[in-house]
């Protein structure tokens, strides 16, 4: 039979279990963490995995970008430009979702007539040099925070060099 005493026992058992859980959590935090309790807590016991030790071996980076650009293949850059075609055009004055890219190498950043720029690029770059284009194409939102360009970037340095070499051939 279901009566108020049974309901009271059920609610009491849930409250007791919750209290035990909260006290156990509080004790565990007190054992494993120390701090003032206001966000700046330091871990009291750290398991050493050896990952924090700095390696004596130098980290190898890829080839210098100037070397890649000097040996870049514009025809391979034309294939890479296929990723850009959705938003950019190569004809001078033909803006799409993004500004036209005719003569972009060496051009001032916000010089595409008729395109409404977000203003984020002007804070970072004045002129589109191959080096600036390289860094921007690698990670547009990371290089110019607040840019309206939604492209994730080109992680491969050789692809970026080929694309910039192709864009250099498109300036008439």
Automatic annotation (TrEMBL):
Keywords: Electron transport, Heme, Iron, Metal-binding, Transport. InterPro entries: Cyt_c-like_dom (IPR009056), Cyt_c-like_dom_sf (IPR036909), Cyt_c_1A/1B (IPR002327). One of its GO terms (molecular function) is metal ion binding. Residues 72-171 form the Cytochrome c domain. Transmembrane segments: none annotated. Pfam families: Cytochrom_C. It comes from the Bacteria. PANTHER family: CYTOCHROME C (PTHR11961). This is Cytochrome c552. The lineage of its organism: Bacteria, Pseudomonadati, Pseudomonadota, Alphaproteobacteria, Rhodobacterales.
């Amino acid at each position: 039979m279901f009566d108020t005493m049974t309901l009271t026992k059920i609610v009491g058992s849930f409250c007791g279990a919750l209290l035990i859980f909260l006290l156990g959590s509080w004790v565990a935090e007190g054992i494993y963490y120390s701090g003032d309790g206001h966000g700046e807590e330091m871990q009291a016991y750290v398991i050493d995995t050896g990952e924090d030790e700095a390696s004596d071996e130098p980290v190898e980076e890829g080839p210098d970008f100037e070397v890649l650009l000097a040996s870049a293949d514009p025809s391979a850059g034309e294939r890479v430009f296929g990723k850009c075609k959705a938003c950019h055009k190569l004809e001078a004055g033909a803006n799409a979702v993004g500004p036209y890219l005719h003569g972009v190498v060496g051009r001032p950043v916000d010089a595409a007539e008729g395109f409404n720029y977000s203003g984020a690029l002007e804070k970072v770059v004045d002129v589109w040099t191959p080096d600036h284009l390289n860094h921007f194409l690698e990670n547009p939102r990371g290089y110019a925070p607040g840019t309206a360009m939604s492209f994730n970037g080109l992680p491969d340095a050789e692809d970026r060099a080929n694309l910039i070499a192709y864009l250099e051939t498109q300036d008439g």
